[in-house]
């Protein structure tokens, strides 16, 4: 399914999105920017390994904003999560990756 | 249990108890010896009574021994204690209640006391031998047993009538029962006491003590008392904070969803960008909704406008027919007779009425349309500055009116056309701002981009502005140099200009003491900038104190090289089109100098007798350059023809009222344009002597390209000049001893 959609994207318009795009977030401005930058750094650093990227984001977020953050990095998945208010950030990055960051302890 | 029972009577009940207790420890697997006889199940189930008696079965009643003295068997004398021999005898303090002594005591009144007659009297009593025997036996079997209990049991067995033992014939049960009795008896004894204690505790204040007949607990009148301290009831108290609020969120991340969202966002961004551009125009448009009639009217107006412009061209062509003829066909015939000297033929004059008081601060031919040039109207009279400026574009096909004219808020000082997109102009303003104009947009849109006046504009006049190469991300960028001593690179981002300071021009002047003891470093004021034609990182910067610095984009503090080029502000530095190491500079100190990269001394130096506003190399010849001066003259040099004098000096404007400011060679046509301080642009035609091309040497067998010839020509010329020390080229005799 993903391929089908991606294919016309490649042919019709040669636009490659590299910027992070917040889909849903109730974080504070500061936290959101932090999370966004972290995700960008992590995804660029571990472009081939989503697990490591997620781990890096999680550990950094834990350090900065307290424990029990959860991070999911992937290209296609579904999720239904319970999070502490003001700690969710669901974003896209690089045109094909979706990153969810939330806190629940 | 049953198999054990069979083992024999000699097995003591203590052992049995032990086995019982250890039941949980051992796995209940019985190891059967091989020779064990088989017993029927019914026999196993059958209970065999075992009766404990005081009689010692090992006891031989009449033991005889042979007496060697008498030579006969004699009955052995028996010890009093049977087979046991007491080693230590400690007399108890308890007396049996049915002993004489006890009876005596009870009759005397002991035991009538209510609650503390635990030990009535201490009397030593010697136990009877039978008792002792019993005791010994029990002790051997279960030495840990409580002595009181022991006594009890013994007594029970002696006096079977007291206990219900006989009703239950199976011996093991009796044993258990007896065992149970012991604690019961003690408890019985303890209970009333407890009750008493409780009543005492409960009704301490009442103090209602009645002497009563003590209930005899046992044969020894022995009782125990125990008290329990009051145990406070335990309670637990806890509180719970309100948990942080939670919410749930769910979504699905799929490539298609991500793609759609990105596309949507991208479209939105593009739309925003579109709106950003012609904001002013949009506002006006949105004011009135266009009706079909209006659209029709506008289309009609547009067509009429086109028709008018054609008509205007026609009229102009007729009016300026003679000039057009001159431009096309007239070459000064006198050139043939003047050896090496040439002349300039004035053609059109361009003026824009609202800008008649402004000076032409910069003029530049368009790189794509050969007939089009852009003019920056500003003001060079700094004591009496104009309030506004103008960016105009003229076509030589229409000298009457500019093709494009836009009034700016501040005088325009410099201009540069983007080579890739020839309708994109960047301009530098007097107030330090830089703008990008798109000549394709309507005039209402005015500028497309403008630097942020608050955040990152220059704090002084922008003296020169040059488009640079595209950035890594593909954005166009340009550089500006300003009187505040900064060279700034501007990236043309969507909707905004992003400034990066490339270099801050430091000066040799020592820091000046500012207020409160601070030291202010003084920047030298940049006045012109020129990029190396091949290496986009290198650029030359001229300053108002006459220095020419070679800078690199890579260093933002230091200069690559630094030369004291002039003594007055450097107005222009221009690289030769054919040799990348040769450049010309002009200055307010009346001089034009030709430099070679890496040399501290100029190759050529010319004094023009007046501040030189501009110098430009000719695009068609490697040795030709032109300069214009403040006294209204245009000088054209051809170093190949004359190394010391210009081959053409022509007064273009009146010396008294006007000054020439800037000039520019057309890249393809043999014309130059120069601007003056009264807002007029003069287009001049170069006479044939000024544009002599190289003739290939007669010896040459193959055809050599003109460009190669030009390079060779310049190289030859430079090699002549390089070795001997430079000589001052002189224009007029009177300036010789400057």
UniProtKB/TrEMBL annotation, chain A:
GO cellular component terms given for this protein: axoneme; dynein complex; microtubule
SUPFAM superfamilies reported in the protein's UniProt record: DLC
SMART domains documented for this protein: Dynein_light
Location, primary (coarse class): cytoplasm
Family, as annotated: Belongs to the dynein light chain family.
Family matches, as InterPro entries: DLC_sf, Dynein_light_chain_typ-1/2
Any GO BP: microtubule-based process
Subcellular location: Cytoplasm, Cytoskeleton, Cilium axoneme
Highest taxon of source: Eukaryota
Name of this chain's protein: Dynein light chain
The entry's keywords: Cell projection, Cilium, Cytoplasm, Cytoskeleton, Dynein, Microtubule, Motor protein
Pfam families according to UniProt: Dynein_light (PF01221)
Record's subunit section: Consists of at least two heavy chains and a number of intermediate and light chains.
Function: Force generating protein of respiratory cilia. Produces force towards the minus ends of microtubules. Dynein has ATPase activity.
Automatic annotation (TrEMBL), chain B:
Gene Ontology terms, MF aspect: dynein heavy chain binding; dynein light chain binding
Residue ranges with Basic and acidic residues bias: 1-10, 156-168, 286-295
Pfam families the record matches: WD40
SUPFAM superfamilies for this protein: WD40 repeat-like
GO CC annotation terms, alphabetical: microtubule; outer dynein arm
GO-annotated biological processes: cilium movement; outer dynein arm assembly
Region (Disordered): 1-20, 124-177, 272-295
Highest taxon above the source species: Eukaryota
Keywords for this protein: Cell projection, Cytoplasm, Cytoskeleton, Dynein, Microtubule, Motor protein, Repeat, WD repeat
Main localization category: cytoplasm
Compartments where found: Cytoplasm, Cytoskeleton, Cilium axoneme
Stored PANTHER family: DYNEIN AXONEMAL INTERMEDIATE CHAIN 1, DYNEIN INTERMEDIATE CHAIN
Family: Belongs to the dynein intermediate chain family.
Name of the protein described by the UniProt record: Dynein intermediate chain 2, ciliary
Species whose genome carries this gene: Arctia plantaginis (Wood tiger moth)
């Amino acid at each position: 399914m993903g391929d089908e959609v991606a294919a016309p994207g490649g042919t019709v318009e040669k636009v490659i999105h590299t910027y992070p795009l917040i889909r849903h977030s109730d974080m504070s401005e500061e936290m959101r920017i932090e999370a966004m930058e972290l995700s960008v750094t992590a995804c660029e650093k571990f472009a081939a390994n989503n697990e490591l990227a997620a781990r890096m984001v999680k550990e950094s977020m834990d350090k900065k904003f307290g424990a029990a953050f959860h991070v999911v990095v992937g290209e296609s998945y579904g999720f239904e999560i319970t999070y502490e208010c003001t700690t969710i950030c669901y974003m896209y990055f690089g045109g094909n990756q979706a990153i969810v960051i939330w806190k629940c302890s | 249990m049953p198999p054990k029972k069979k083992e024999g009577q000699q097995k003591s009940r203590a052992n049995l108890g032990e086995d019982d207790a250890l039941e949980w420890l051992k796995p209940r697997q019985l190891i059967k010896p091989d020779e064990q006889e088989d017993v029927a199940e019914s026999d196993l189930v059958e209970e065999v009574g075992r009766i404990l008696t005081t009689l010692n079965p090992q006891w031989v009643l009449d033991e005889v021994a042979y007496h060697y003295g008498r030579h006969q068997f004699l009955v052995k004398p028996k010890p009093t204690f049977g087979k046991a021999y007491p080693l230590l005898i400690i007399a108890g303090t308890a007396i049996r209640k049915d002993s004489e002594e006890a009876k005596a005591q009870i009759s005397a009144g002991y035991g009538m006391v209510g609650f503390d007659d635990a030990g009535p009297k201490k009397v030593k009593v010697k136990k009877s031998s039978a008792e002792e025997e019993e005791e010994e036996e029990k002790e051997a079997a279960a030495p840990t047993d409580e002595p009181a209990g022991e006594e009890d049991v013994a007594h029970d067995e002696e006096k079977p009538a007291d206990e219900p033992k006989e009703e239950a014939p199976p011996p093991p049960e009796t044993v258990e029962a007896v065992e149970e009795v012991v604690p019961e008896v003690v408890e019985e004894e303890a209970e009333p006491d407890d009750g008493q204690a409780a009543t005492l505790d409960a009704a301490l204040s009442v103090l209602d003590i009645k002497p009563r007949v003590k209930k005899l607990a046992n044969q020894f009148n022995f009782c125990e008392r125990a008290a329990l301290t009051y145990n406070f009831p335990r309670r637990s108290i806890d509180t719970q904070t309100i948990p942080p609020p939670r919410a749930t969120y769910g979504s699905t991340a799929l490539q298609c969803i991500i793609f759609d969202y990105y596309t949507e966002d991208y479209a939105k961004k593009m739309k925003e960008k579109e709106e950003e551009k012609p904001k002013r125009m949009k506002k006006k448009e949105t004011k009135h909704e266009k009706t079909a009639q209006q659209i029709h009217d506008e289309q009609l107006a547009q067509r009429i406008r086109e028709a008018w412009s054609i008509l205007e061209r026609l009229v102009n062509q007729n009016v300026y027919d003679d000039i057009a003829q001159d431009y096309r066909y007239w070459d000064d015939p006198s050139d043939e007779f003047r050896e090496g000297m040439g002349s300039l033929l004035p053609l059109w004059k361009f003026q824009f009425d609202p800008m008649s008081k402004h000076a032409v601060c910069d003029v530049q031919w368009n790189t794509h349309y050969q007939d089009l040039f852009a003019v920056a109207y500003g003001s060079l009279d700094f004591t009496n500055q104009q309030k506004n400026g103008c960016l105009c574009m003229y076509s030589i096909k229409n000298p009457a009116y500019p093709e494009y004219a836009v009034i700016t808020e501040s005088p325009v000082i410099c201009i540069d056309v983007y080579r890739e997109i020839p309708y994109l102009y960047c301009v530098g303003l007097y107030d330090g701002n830089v703008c990008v104009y798109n000549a394709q947009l309507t005039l209402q849109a005015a500028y497309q981009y403008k630097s942020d006046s608050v955040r990152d504009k220059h704090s002084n006049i922008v003296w020169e502005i040059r488009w640079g190469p595209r950035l890594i991300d593909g954005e166009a960028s340009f550089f500006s140099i300003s009187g505040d001593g900064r060279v700034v690179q501007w990236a043309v981002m969507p909707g905004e200009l992003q400034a990066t300071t490339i270099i801050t021009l430091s000066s040799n002047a020592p820091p000046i003491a500012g207020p409160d003891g601070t030291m202010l470093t003084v920047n030298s004021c940049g006045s012109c900038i020129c990029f190396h034609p091949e290496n986009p990182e290198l650029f030359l910067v001229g300053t108002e104190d006459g220095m020419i610095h070679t800078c690199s984009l890579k260093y933002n503090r230091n200069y690559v090289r630094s030369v004291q080029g002039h003594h007055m502000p450097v107005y222009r530095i221009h690289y030769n089109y054919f040799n990348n190491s040769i450049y010309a500079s002009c200055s307010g100190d009346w001089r034009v100098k030709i430099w070679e990269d890496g040399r501290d001394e100029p190759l050529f130096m010319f004094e023009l007798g007046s501040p030189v506003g501009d110098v430009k190399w000719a695009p068609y010849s490697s040795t030709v350059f032109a300069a214009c001066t403040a006294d209204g003259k245009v000088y054209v040099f051809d170093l190949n023809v004359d190394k010391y004098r210009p081959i053409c000096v022509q007064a273009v404007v009146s010396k008294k009222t006007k000054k020439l400011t800037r000039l520019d060679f057309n890249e393809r046509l043999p014309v130059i344009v120069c601007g003056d301080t009264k807002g007029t642009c003069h287009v001049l035609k170069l006479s044939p002597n000024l544009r002599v091309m190289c003739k290939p040497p007669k010896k040459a067998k193959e055809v050599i390209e003109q460009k190669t010839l030009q390079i060779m020509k310049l190289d030859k010329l430079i090699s002549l000049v390089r070795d001997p020390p430079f000589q001052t080229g002189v224009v007029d005799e009177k300036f010789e001893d400057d």
